[in-house]
């Protein structure tokens, strides 16, 4: 690249270079990479546009633009992606958090607030008195359906019999299956600090990223290595949330090259019809002492009906809701046991 004079010119040059190569979102890419290289963001970036491009940053800048030119997602170059108002570290070991997944987090928080009004607003789960001692927790096993609330026990027990229920001595417990960067689990832990949040993943490298995100965002998340529900065997679970791989294997070749060539295949490939992880999670459900009262899943185009049917067939959730994404595609399926 020829010498550039100002930051604005560096932006223009990189944009047209990337655009000429057919790289997607050339302008947005150029701006994000510039902001990252210069350590500026938002207003500070715009105010610096007329400044000379700092010569000591040139090598780093050209390296970043070259990587983007080869199709690498901007987020793997900057190492960051914002999610639900927080900046997450991302590496090629994890799927880049998508904006639509924020809607899954939002739906889980909303339905959880309905199911456990005290659990979200009041810190602890409904009726919970104090942090459970290990002994107390063990005692609780086998009490499924026993709700902690002082009022309405009879009717709630009738409605919720057989389901995991928040009780005194046990915090509302959430598991995130296939946690990746920890976008979902870390956000839930940060938004609802009273909950016990656990993140599972089959990839140790992904769990390491999730752990760093939890740490840097000050969220308490317990990490569990293993396949889907396996690492949560025996855990009383109130909420299960998952954005597993759900792309049909045969569709991977047709994905945008940023995704196909750079994001982890294990985070994308859901088997022949993309629904293997869902079938396996349903099969593994008996590993938990009782079905979680709230489940929230992300899925792809044309899969909502099938996943809703799977949940219905499992028979544990009285209400099944489909949530559209910003493009109007049914993107999340929520199961609720009231
Ligand atoms: N939403 C991602 C994509 O379209 C896929 C994520 C997933 O498989 N969980 O690339």
UniProtKB/TrEMBL annotation:
EC number(s) recorded for this UniProt protein: 2.1.1.297
Keywords assigned: Methyltransferase, S-adenosyl-L-methionine, Transferase
GO molecular function: nucleic acid binding; peptide chain release factor N(5)-glutamine methyltransferase activity
All copies of domain Release factor glutamine methyltransferase N-terminal, residue ranges: 9-79
Domain Methyltransferase small residues, every copy: 173-250
Binding-site list for substrate: 243-246
GO BP field: methylation
PANTHER family to which the protein is assigned, alphabetical: HEMK METHYLTRANSFERASE, MTRF1L RELEASE FACTOR GLUTAMINE METHYLTRANSFERASE
The protein's role, per its UniProt record: Methylates the class 1 translation termination release factors RF1/PrfA and RF2/PrfB on the glutamine residue of the universally conserved GGQ motif.
Protein name: Release factor glutamine methyltransferase
Organism lineage: Bacteria, Bacillati, Bacillota, Bacilli, Bacillales
Gene: prmC
């Amino acid at each position: 690249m020829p010498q550039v004079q100002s930051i604005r010119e560096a932006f223009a040059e990189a944009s047209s270079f990337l655009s000429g190569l057919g790289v997607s979102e050339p302008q947005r890419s150029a701006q994000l990479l510039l902001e990252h290289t210069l350590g500026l963001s938002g207003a500070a970036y715009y105010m610096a546009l007329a400044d000379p491009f700092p010569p000591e940053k040139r090598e780093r800048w050209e390296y970043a633009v070259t990587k983007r030119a080869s199709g690498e997602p901007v987020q793997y170059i900057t190492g960051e992606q914002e999610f639900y108002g927080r900046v997450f570290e991302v590496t090629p070991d994890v799927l880049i958090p998508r904006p639509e997944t924020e809607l899954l987090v939002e739906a889980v928080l909303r339905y959880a607030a309905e199911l456990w009004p005290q659990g979200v607003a009041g810190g602890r789960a409904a009726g919970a008195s104090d942090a459970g001692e290990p002994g107390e927790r063990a005692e609780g096993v086998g009490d499924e359906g026993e709700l902690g609330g002082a009022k309405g026990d009879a009717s709630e027990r009738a409605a919720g019999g057989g389901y995991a229920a928040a009780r005194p001595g046990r915090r509302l417990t959430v598991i995130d299956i296939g946690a990746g960067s920890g976008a979902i689990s870390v956000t839930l832990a940060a938004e609802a600090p009273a909950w016990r949040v656990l993140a599972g993943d089959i990839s140790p490298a992904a769990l390491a990223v999730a752990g760093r995100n939890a740490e840097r965002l000050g969220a308490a998340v317990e990490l569990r290595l293993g396949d889907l529900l396996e690492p949560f065997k025996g855990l009383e679970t109130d909420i299960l949330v998952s954005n597993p791989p759900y792309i049909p294997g045969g569709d991977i070749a047709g994905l945008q090259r940023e995704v196909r060539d750079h994001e982890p295949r294990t985070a994308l490939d859901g088997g022949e019809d993309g629904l293997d992880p869902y079938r396996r999670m349903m099969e593994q459900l008996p590993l938990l002492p009782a079905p979680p009262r709230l489940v929230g899943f992300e899925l792809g185009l044309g899969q909502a009906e099938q996943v809703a049917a799977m949940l219905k067939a499992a028979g544990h959730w009285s209400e099944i809701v489909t949530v559209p994404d910003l493009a109007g595609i049914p993107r999340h399926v929520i199961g609720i046991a009231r």
